[in-house]
Amino acid sequence: MNRKQRIMLMRIALSAIMVASLSFIPVSGVLRFILYMAAYLIVGYDILLKAIRGIINGQVFDECFLMAIATVGAVALALYERSGDYTEAVAVMLFYQVGELFQSYAVGKSRKNITELMDIRPDYANIEKDGKLERVDPDDVEKGSVIIVQPGEKVPIDGIVIEGESSLNTSALTGESLPRDIHAGDGIISGSINLSGVLRIRTEKEFGESTVSKILDLVENASSRKSRSEDFISKFARVYTPAVCLSALVLAVLPPLFLMLTGNAPIWETWIYRALTFLVISCPCALVISIPLSFFAGIGGASNAGILIKGSNYLETLSKTKIVVFDKTGTLTEGVFEVIGIHHGTIDDEKIIEYAALAESASSHPISKSLQKAYGMEIDRSRVTGIEEISGNGIKAVVDGHDVACGNDKLMRSLGIEPVMCHSTGTIIHVAIDGRYSGHIVISDVIKKHSEEAIRALKDIGIRKTVMLTGDARKAAESVAEKVGADEVYSELLPSDKVEKVEELIAGKGSDEKLAFVGDGINDAPVLGRADIGIAMGAMGSDAAIEAADVVLMDDDPLKIAKAIRISRKCLRIVYENIVFAIGIKLICLILGAVGIADMWLAIFADVGVMIIAVLNAIRALNVKKL
Question: Known catalytic residues?
Answer without folding.
Answer: 327
